[in-house]
Amino acid sequence: MNTHPTPQRCRIVLIAPPAASADQLARRLADALSGGDVASVLVPGYDADENLFQAIAEAAVPVIQKAGAAAIIVGNTQIAGRVKADGLHFEGAVADVAGNVERFSPKMIVGTGNIKNRHTALEIGEAQPDYVLFGKIGADTKPEAHPRNLELADWWASMVEIPCIVQAGNSLESIPDAAMTGAEFIALGAAVFDAEDTAAAVREANRLLDEHAPRFEE
Fold it and tell me: For the chain, does the N or the C end have fewer beta carbons within 10 angstroms?
């Protein structure tokens, strides 16, 4: 008899790359999203000023939503509201995360990330965000996933109901280790957007997730 819940197959969360223009990012996102199943896309502003970030968000959100994914703006509550994004990703002090959850949920998806230890994770969990990301946007600079992110995701997924996203490395070969943590989602940035063919990278990522979906033995 299987005493464990049947694990859900891990899904992709894309982290949009920096862009020189709104049109450029919209094209790159459309190409990537044509490659298959993506649950959501996080859109950071990076070093863009307010006007450019607004333009980027205005161009990106409809492309993401048309593909059936949730568009989540990183770090700017005003822009998230203006462009009718599906969600807001906010990193900061626990009290600030809790304040955003209280202010915007359930109207919007509210998540957070860059969590470096179990204590902070549990404190943030008490605020009841819609998800937590184990990883830091833009930190996928090595082929493998960061061991700390894998450890935290494995621990969290085994005991907390709030969904988690685990950040992969900049190689698609890091997907199996990330998927085996039991995390509901896997964040892919450079592994997709540094690829010559982003749609093919998303297709391969989904193939790997199908192949390596965790299964409990009977």
Answer: N
What's the pTM value of the predicted model, to 2 decimals? 0.93
CATH node for 11-211: 3.20.20.70
pLDDT more than 70, % of the chain: 94
User: What ranges do the domains of the chain cover?
Assistant: 11-211
Asked if residue 164 lies in contact with residue 185, where contact means CB atoms within 8 angstroms, the answer is yes
How high is the pLDDT of residue 7? 57
Nearest Cα residue to 120 out of 141, 148, 142, 144: 148
SS (H, E, C) 142-181: CCCCCHHHHHHHHHHHHHCCCCEEEECCCCHHHHHHHHCC
Burial class from Cβ neighbours inside 10 Å (0-12, 13-18, 19+) for residue 214 reads middle
Q: What is the DSSP string of 39-79?
A: -EEEE--TT--HHHHHHHHHHHHHHHHHTT-EEEEES-HHH
Is a pLDDT exceeding 60 seen at residue 215?
no
